[in-house]
Fold this protein.
Amino acid sequence: MSAIPLVADIELFGLIFARLTVMIMLFPIFGYSMLPVHYRLGLSFFLALLLFPILKPVFIEPQIKNMFDFFWLMFKEAGIGAMIGFFTRFLFSAVDLAGELIDMQMGFSMVQMPNPINEDEMATATGYFYILIFAIAFLMLDGHYFLLLAVQKCFSLMPPGAVVLDINTIVPMVIKLLQNIVDIAIRISAPIMIVMIITTFALGIIAKTMPQMNVFVVGMPLKIGIGLVLMAATLPVMVQFFSAMVKQMYVDIWALLFKMAGS
């Protein structure tokens, strides 16, 4: 084998591995912090080996004059992987935010525990519970298989080294992503939050009309009890809503890939 084809093969594999590694590290389930880093790197390496013979015939070697050019290309590939990885993760962030909003009204906001998806972060009690339910719905609807399919699709639409990141395309997508996180979180938490606000308002009226009653002692367990009953009552609806969110995520990720590819 001549030196030039070997160099081209190394360049191609390096670009594939750079994008894959960032995607796997950020993907939900695959990027779980309890999974050792070397396992995730091994998965990225294995997937890169599988994709390499598929992409090699269509790979157009970019003009690389020095190592700086090569590392710049790898940085751009990592940026593409980060965009896709963060997009697949935003629903979990929305569910976590919804749990925090509910716990602020129930009085559980001080109860912190490791996030079941990312133990580097903390989650409130309701956020922890909702994230687990959403993760189960995600796995039951084959979300992990879809992520692997999205990996293959992103490389077929955006070959390594040939993608030009347009800031005018990326910024609106990031803004819309943040808007969707807040929108979904409010939609999930709204029913319980509204009842909690009404309960707080009612306790305020009782405190004014019955000063001898210690509302702070009565109000906290009352709000917790009402919140738990509402969570149990809305759980079947919430599971259906989470399933619809996962299915919509499939459509959104496909749209994101085609938009990034300029198709």
Residues 215-261 form the longest helix (47 residues). The mean pLDDT is 80. The radius of gyration is 23 Å.
